[in-house]
Amino acid sequence: SMAIVIMFTILLFQMKSFAEVSLVMMLIPMGFMGSIIGHYIVGIPVSFISFLGSIALAGIIVNDSVVFIDKYNKLYKQEGLSVEEAIYQAGIQRFRPIIMTTLTTAIGLAPLIFQKSTGGQFLIPMAVSVAFGLLFGTTITLLMLPSALLIIDDFKKMRDRRKTARTVRNLPMLSVEMPDRKKVLV
């Protein structure tokens, strides 16, 4: 739990957006679900070593998410693209690096997952946690993260409309007298 608090704090300083950091942190349990599914597929029980693999998995999923969100923020805030266009371009420009990181990690762990030697048997649960969790977590990241960023933007727009409506409601009414007419409220 201390690692998650430290990770959250570091991300908050980097991204300067509580909503984006919370979104990244919500993706971590998705990777854990993939890890548990992987244990079921391979047919091994979840163990303490699996938990250690899940800690490494959390860091990789956060890294993939940060790569995407960082590109989105640069396109949106610095280059002035619309939110939709920034998300689309970030997806196109960061899809390959995210997929390559995931595939090379998962393929690199495959020999460890399928080894039969007694010396490496204790590492198999860790490899399963990382490989399957990463495959599942990356898929969820690439599908859910852009949608969630759009939802966050919609909430920001709603909040801004409410602020504007409150400001307009609080403006004093002016009465203007028109020649040969009654008073008109402006």
Q: What are the key terms here?
A:
two-stranded antiparallel sheet; 5 helices; 79% helix
What does this structure look like?
There is one protein chain. By secondary structure, the chain is mainly α. 79% of the residues lie in helices and 3% in strands. It is built from five helices and two strands, in the order αααααββ. The chain has a two-stranded antiparallel ribbon. A hairpin with a 5-residue loop joins strand 1 and strand 2. Helix 3 runs parallel beside helix 5. The mean pLDDT is 86.
Topology:
Blueprint: H1 2-15, H2 18-42, H3 48-78, H4 83-113, H5 124-169, E1 175-177, E2 183-185
Antiparallel strand pairs: 1-2
Helix pairs in contact: 1-2, 2-3, 2-5, 3-4, 3-5, 4-5
What general outline do the C-alpha atoms trace? elongated
Mean pLDDT equals 86
**Order of SSEs, N→C?**
HHHHHEE
The value of Rg in angstroms is: 24 Å
Structural class: mainly alpha
Strand order of the largest sheet: 1-2
Total beta strand runs: 2
Poorly predicted sequence stretches spanning 5 or more consecutive residues: none
Helix count from the secondary structure assignment: 5
**Beginning-to-end CA distance, first to last residue:** 57 Å
Strand content: under 5%
Largest sheet, in brief, is: 2 strands, antiparallel
Helix content: over 70%
